Structure formats: structure tokens, C-alpha cells
Amino acid sequence: NESKRHAALEPFPPPMADTGPIEELPDSSIGGGQQQVRHGDVVIPEVEQEKEEKRRKILATKRENAMHRRNVMAYAEENAAAWMEQQQARASADGAAERRR
Question: Which residue ranges make up each domain of the chain?
């Protein structure tokens, strides 16, 4: 009877044995799909090809966006330089007009 009472005090269910760290699998939707076979997964060539195409499209888009950003920055810098020159020319013209008065 004592053993039954002792068993009732035990946490339920009994704690599981520690099997070591949980192995984290990379999220394939993020694009790092280099690890093709994981624990007996079947590699389907069509799916792998689609993943690769998707990854290439994403990289191409990122490249295009970076180029566009650089072009926009260059354009802004040119405009800023032209604007500064215009302001300086206007200021010196105003100064010359002031001196003539």
C-alpha cells in the first residue's frame, strides 16, 4: 500500500529521458535548401528544381533592387550637386546686384 501511495506522488507522466539537443532543420522556404536528404526524405528532382528557380528569381530581384537603389542615389547626388551650384550662382548674382546698387 505504501508503494501505491508513493507512486501517486510521482509526477505524471514520468519525465522523458533526455535524448540530447533537438536537431533543428533549416527552413527550406528561406532558400538554404542545400541539405537535400534529411532523415530519409525523398528528394523529388522537380521540387528541387522549382526551389532553385525560386531562389534564382529572388536573387535576381534583390540584384535589380540594389541596382535601382544605386541609380536613385546617384541621381539624387547629381541633383543635389546641380542644386548647390545653382544656389551658389544665384547667391553670387544677388551679391553682384547688391554691390551694383
Answer: 49-96
